[in-house]
Amino acid sequence: MSGWACNSLGGQCYGKLMWPELLGRKGKEAKDVIEKERADTTVFCVPRDAIVTDDYCCNRVRIYVDGNANGDCGNAKVIAVPKVG
User: Fold this and answer.
1) What is the mean pLDDT of residues 33-44?
2) What's the pTM?
3) 85, 16 Cβ separation under 8 angstroms
4) In terms of C-beta distances under 8 Å and separation of at least 24 residues, what long-range contacts does 13-19 make, across chains too?
5) What is the domain-level CATH number for residue 62?
């Protein structure tokens, strides 16, 4: 997403950090829950085999989904526990 920047590289993260209850749910549903619970984060949906940076940001959550999400969570199934980072 354009305009997004890591505001906490290497910092201490606070608040809810993981959403194991969203595993297996639809990506859009998971994104909505996370955005409601952590309005200070930006949520990205990425396909299972996406290549992503390994930096850790307290204001980012990646939702890994099956299929080719292309940034859109839609009805894709969440395949890994979403977590801050």
Assistant:
1) 94
2) 0.85
3) no
4) 13/58, 13/84, 14/58, 15/40, 16/84, 17/83, 17/84, 18/81, 18/82, 18/83, 18/84, 19/81, 19/82, 19/83
5) 3.30.10.10
